[in-house]
């Protein structure tokens, strides 16, 4: 086990440390939990599946969440939500306890089938690896639902959604942009009904308040075109793809009042609204709450209100 006395190349205190030999230590406390046949609190079933394998170099996995169905509704179809967890592109996974609990609740409250994607993490796999994994997973779900019996039997791809928080919210934006320029299926038969971005990792204006977030971006994507002003982190930067081409029918941007990135997130919402985007864009701000409060404390009253809002969005 390495110690702090060994040569350290870079460290984000309490988050991640990388040594000069590229050995990585994640300092952020996390606990992984297994899937469950039936969650005792929500009745939601979950399982881990392989979503995609490429040329043999790596595979992408996901955790699926299926709401409880009665015998009389065994063939019931649910909206399909492809979800991307947060963690600044370098932490967390679908197996993380906080995400497992959060998505069990969301699946139950909103009555949606969730595909939570385990994308590759930086720095071992710097961006754009996570974007490529996200696109590949989204394409597979939309073009070949038979990859898993739950999706094939219970998924309604006419109600396909994407969602995510923090870095996952950033992935959602970039997938929606790509979906506005590329077809998800060869037949162009499936489109994204809606996209929600919870407290997304979006930056457009340097300040002391978000300095660490900018440094983290440079850490997870050292070769980013445009550096810290790359259109993938700053969708409002000069030369960024037009927000009018977002490939979804509706968008929901969720903001926490005490989040350091709240101003950038609100400017993003306004930019989408003013871009000529033909869909509907909505802003949901919860003052007095901090970044991803609904994930770290899903039982709080404000979290319950947010779950209800998400449920309404996923069924409009």
UniProtKB/TrEMBL annotation:
Domain of life where this protein originates? Eukaryota
Query: Of which family is this protein a member?
Result: Belongs to the 'GDXG' lipolytic enzyme family.
Signal peptide positions (record): none
Q: Which PANTHER family match?
A: 2-HYDROXYISOFLAVANONE DEHYDRATASE-LIKE, ARYLACETAMIDE DEACETYLASE
What's the protein name?
Alpha/beta hydrolase fold-3 domain-containing protein
Q: Which SUPFAM superfamilies match?
A: alpha/beta-Hydrolases
User: What broad taxonomic lineage does this protein's source fall under?
Assistant: Eukaryota, Viridiplantae, Streptophyta, Embryophyta, Tracheophyta
Species assigned in the record = Saponaria officinalis
Q: Which residues form the Alpha/beta hydrolase fold-3 domain?
A: 81-294
Which GO molecular function annotation, any one, does this entry have?
Answer: hydrolase activity
């Amino acid at each position: 086990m390495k110690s702090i006395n060994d040569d350290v190349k870079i460290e984000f205190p309490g988050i991640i440390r990388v040594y000069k030999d590229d050995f990585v230590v994640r300092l952020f406390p996390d606990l992984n939990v297994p899937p469950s046949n039936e969650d005792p609190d929500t009745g939601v079933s979950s399982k881990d599946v392989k979503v995609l394998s490429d040329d043999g170099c790596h595979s992408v996995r996901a955790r699926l969440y299926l709401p409880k169905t009665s015998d009389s509704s065994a063939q019931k179809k649910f909206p399909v939500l492809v979800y991307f967890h947060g963690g600044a592109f370098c932490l967390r996974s679908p197996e993380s306890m906080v995400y497992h609990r959060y998505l069990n609740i969301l699946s139950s409250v909103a009555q949606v089938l969730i595909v939570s994607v385990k994308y590759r993490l930086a720095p071992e796999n710097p961006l754009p690896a996570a974007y490529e994994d996200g696109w590949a997973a989204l394409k597979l779900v939309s073009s070949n639902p038979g990859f898993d019996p739950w999706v094939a039997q219970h998924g309604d791809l006419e109600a396909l959604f994407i969602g995510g928080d923090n870095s996952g919210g950033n992935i959602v934006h970039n997938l929606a942009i790509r979906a506005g320029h590329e077809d998800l299926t060869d037949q162009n038969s499936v489109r994204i009904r809606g996209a929600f971005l919870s407290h997304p990792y979006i930056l457009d204006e340097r300040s002391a308040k978000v300095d660490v977030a900018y440094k983290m971006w440079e850490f997870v994507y050292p070769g980013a075109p445009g550096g810290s002003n790359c259109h993938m982190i700053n969708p409002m930067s000069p030369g960024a793809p037009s927000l009018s081409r977002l490939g979804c029918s509706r968008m929901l941007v969720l903001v926490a009042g005490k989040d350091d990135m709240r101003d950038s997130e609100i400017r993003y919402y306004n930019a989408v609204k003013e871009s000529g985007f033909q869909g509907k864009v909505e802003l949901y701000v919860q003052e007095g709450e901090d970044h991803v409060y609904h994930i770290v404390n899903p039982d709080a009253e404000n979290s319950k209100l947010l779950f209800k809002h998400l449920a309404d969005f996923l069924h409009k």
